[in-house]
Write a structure and sequence with these properties.
Order of helices and strands of chain B: HHHHHHHH
Number of helices of chain A: 10
CATH class of the domain at 27-180 in chain B: Mainly Alpha
Distance between the termini of chain A: 50 Å
CATH topology of the domain at 27-180 in chain B: MetI-like fold
Structural class of chain B: mainly alpha
CATH architecture of chain A: Orthogonal Bundle
Number of helices of chain B: 8
CATH architecture of the domain at 27-180 in chain B: Orthogonal Bundle
Helix content of chain B: over 70%
Number of domains of chain A: 1
Radius of gyration of chain A: 21 Å
CATH superfamily of chain A: MetI-like
Radius of gyration of chain B: 21 Å
Structural class of chain A: mainly alpha
Largest sheet of chain A: none
Number of strands of chain B: 0
Shape of chain B: flat
Strand content of chain B: under 5%
Number of strands of chain A: 0
CATH topology of chain A: MetI-like fold
CATH superfamily of the domain at 27-180 in chain B: MetI-like
Distance between the termini of chain B: 49 Å
Oligomer: heterodimer
Order of helices and strands of chain A: HHHHHHHHHH
Helix content of chain A: over 70%
Amino acid sequence: MNWTWFPEYFPLLLQGLWLTIQLLVLSMIFGMTIAVPVGLVQVTGPKWLAAIAKGYCTVMRGTPLLVQLWLLYFGLGSVFSAYPEIRQSMFWPILREGYFYAVLAFTLNTGGYSGEIMRGGFLSVPKGELEAARAYGMSPWKVLHRIWFPRAVRNVLPTLANETVLLLKATPLAATVTVLDIFGVILRVRQNTYITYEPLITAALIYMALTFLITRAFNYVEGLVPSRR
Amino acid sequence: MIPEILTFGDKGFGDELFRGTQFTLLIAASAYVIGICIGLIGASAKLYGGALSRGSAATYTTIIRSVPEVVLILLLYFAGTRGINTLLGFVGLGPIEVNGTLAAIVVLGVVQGAYHTEVFRAAIQAVPIGQIEAGKAFGMGGMQIFRRVTGPAMLPNAIPGMSNLWLIVIKDTALVAVVGNYELLSTTASAAAFTKRYMLFFLTTALIYLSITLVSNYFIGLLESRYRRGQTRLA
């Protein structure tokens, strides 16, 4: 076992950890803002909107995340850089970064998966509760944000926990588009020192710890909302 | 209608992409079969094994399912290469270059095995215990009970999970591109880098993956309705 590299790369690893957490949290938040309407319109929306949402989910779930990421980073990136107007715009410093494309790809991807989860969640709320809410004279919007949405999220919380873990396990793909997340740092250590196993095992341990923390956090939140089953 | 760059022959990358697709399907199918074998072993270890086999099966599934696939692929790829060469060294043979495709198959198979273990474990547990007891009462041995009772009875329960895993393994083959290979995504990446037509190539590849998924979905539907025949439908 060769751990001589560890002290030197420790600060970089911490930065990598922070980047991984950022990728996870940002993509999950943005992804959920896509997922909720995508799930909702499939349950109650007009047919054409439901069809679009369904198609979006199918494409996102039917193609590998790495293809989506590289399509955005290399494909969209090369289209962007072909236009001088974009290259000279104020957004270019963001559009140039692999980080941006990683968050974009993860967001769109988890939006598709969580969209399906949310569809199931909205369907799982008993009809009687929604009818009761309407009978109280609540507007459709009020029914949604007081009854339908909270109940749906509570029902699919375990599945969302799973999806969050899957998303965490997808974040190392960002290293392929130059993001120095945990995995990126590990690859750099390997490149610079030619040590293979110890860095990779370190990465595996860090991801296992993060998985454990996510599972615990979701269990805690589940415990906050009492549910009778 | 198809751009010349995607046609078959000298001028286009059609035949390269086709070959890549074949490799992807080969890797996915072989890894899937290995995964099923490991899964059956793992599930029986978890359900019927002693403390040692239960413990090792639990460790295996926990580690594999909480570490990112890319990390596992790199780890198993390098560890596997070194392991094989150490073994060869013991018997006095020189180191060999491990075939990338074979390594990919084994690695993805080991990853799939962990998920298959859980699928089979749950599926077997859902088989009414009375049916297995009835098999025992007839004097069947362990293998015979599995072949005649537990196997067929658990299959309808396992099929949804197994179909998910098939879709996952197809998408996971793309990760092999990280260590470089001849499968679809690596081929696409080099073709795209060579021609600078990134958008075109990655879109084409996404379409290929999507059609594999959709075709698989169709057959999974057929398979599931066949294996659920005779089961009473829930209201």
